[in-house]
Amino acid sequence: MFSKACEYGIKATIFIAVRSLHNNRVSLKEIAKEIDSPEAFTAKILQSLAKNGLVDSHKGPTGGFQMERTKMDTINLYDIVNAIDGDSIFHGCGLGLKQCDSRKPCPVHHKFVVVRENLTHMLQNTTMYELATGLDIGLTHLKR
């Protein structure tokens, strides 16, 4: 459903949030290793997340990525998906057809409306804090 970049972005953001709960910054190398993603690909994803204000990037020898605790309550999965994949999943055709809308629906248009609404609700109501505290016990969940 989500692109590979988005999946990695979600995993990276959760990892950063978990480590930030313990007042730790994490390096690109640590993130790439933890989420089992190539470093160059991870760097581009993290750049997009930082540009959208979802993670904080610090340069230098003590640099790395982190997330303020207060941000964890406001940043949700919807924000990450939108930053990486854009909003096409929330508006596009469920079959990926170019010509599909309520006036000229594809065969699954009306069924997909319900799926899209439920997905949007879940993504908008799942915060980084919820995910970070839920996965803090074992980060091995982030690898495939």
TrEMBL record:
- Per its UniProt record, what InterPro entries does this chain match? Tscrpt_reg_Rrf2, WH-like_DNA-bd_sf, WH_DNA-bd_sf
Protein name per its UniProtKB record: RrF2 family transcriptional regulator
